[in-house]
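Recall the central idea of this unit: under ordinary conditions, the amino acid sequence of a chain determines the structure it adopts. In this exercise we apply that idea directly, starting from the sequence alone.
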Amino acid sequence: MKAVYDALYYDLTLKTVGLGIAALLIVVHLLALLKGEPVRAWLRTLPRNEKLGMWILAVDFAWCFLVWSEMDLGEFHSIEKTVQMVMVLGFLGFGYYVREFLAVRAIGLFLILLACPVLNAAFLQPPVTRLLLVFLAYAWVIKGMFYVGMPYLMRDGIDWVVAKPSRWKMSAMAGLAYGVAVLLCALMFY
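Accordingly, the structure predicted from this sequence is:
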């Protein structure tokens, strides 16, 4: 587990993160442009998709457990096992009792967790273009907090974007352009 933790939080370079995020943004937004109707239909069902929510929540739990188990806890080391048990009970309770918008809440947690490796890779790096990744990471954190606390916002946002084809196309093209910008910066500056 230590190797996975180190790979996520210490070994990632700005170039690797930039290329990975660029690829993700480009693929997702190209898919949204090319397969618009099936993607819109799937997105409408996403907020209440309990099965997907449980899978994403399991990934969130594993990631949180990994971080808590491998990070230097300092003076809190004495409560490591207690917190691990609370995390297991929290995961089971969350998965059982919080069925409403489970996928949205799990995605929110995932976005918050995902921001840290991105910010670590960009920390104190010289190219100013790293701020493209920093901006995206902080946007993920803010969205993640809102998705966990007010999950209906994702449903409403999806409904707003898919309501008009022009909004859908503009959103997909904006995401694609951002991905291409990150890709170019990763290739030229990182």
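The chain has one domain: 2-188.
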